[in-house]
Design goal:
The chain has helices at residues 14-21, 24-35, 64-69, 90-104, 119-127, and strands spanning 5-8, 39-46, 49-57, 75-81, 109-115, 131-132, 138-141, 152-161. It has one domain: Aminopeptidase. It is α+β, with helices and mostly antiparallel strands. It is built from five helices and eight strands, in the order βααββαβαβαβββ. α1 (14-21) packs antiparallel against α2 (24-35). Strands 1, 2, 3, 4, 5, 6, 7 and 8 form an eight-stranded mixed sheet that branches. Helices cover 30% and strands 31% of the residues. The mean pLDDT is 91.
Length: 164
């Protein structure tokens, strides 16, 4: 995808991310985590507009089951593509960039959680080489809102070995 640039988000991107993709609290949180080397927020840009993102969670997982079975494994989270740019390979490009970055940092595998029932995402991840992790589904939580409420999703976990 020659017309798409993928790069880590910068603090000055917050307005574009929130304005185009919404979720200003989420992006502010992920940029803070990135500044502390706890993750990487990769962004996809086309023609000067942000069109997608994915976050690489590098700190211990929030989910106890993932911490137990995959204690050192980074997580690909929050793959999001703007509605006008879906089904054009942007998500695949973001996942590929995330995997290369992780492999370059010495990681042997990567994991992700996909909400049960999100068959389109599960098909994409399977096509990209992700496989069920062999344990039960887990509860995944959203970023807390201003009242401390977190949404819960039941998710399957998938893993992939990274080529180095």
């Amino acid at each position: 995808m020659r017309d798409v640039t993928i790069r880590p988000a910068r603090p000055e991107d917050l307005g574009s991310l929130a304005g185009r993709l919404g979720q200003d609290r989420f992006f502010a949180d992920r940029l803070d985590r990135q500044s502390e080397s706890r993750g990487v927020l990769l962004t996809a840009w086309r023609g000067g507009l942000v069109i997608g993102d994915v976050y690489l969670w590098l700190e211990p997982a929030e989910e106890p089951e993932i911490r137990r079975y995959l204690p050192e494994t980074p997580l690909v989270t929050h793959l999001e593509i703007h509605r006008d740019h879906r089904r054009q390979g942007v998500g695949t490009s973001l996942i590929g960039a995330a995997e290369r970055l992780l492999a370059d940092r010495g990681h042997d595998e990567v994991a992700l959680a996909v909400e049960i029932g999100n068959t389109a995402a599960a098909k994409l991840y399977t096509r990209l080489g992700y496989r069920d992790w062999g344990h039960s589904a887990v509860k995944c939580y959203s970023l807390a809102d201003e009242n401390g409420h977190r949404d819960v999703e039941i998710c399957d976990v998938m893993v992939k070995a990274l080529a180095r």
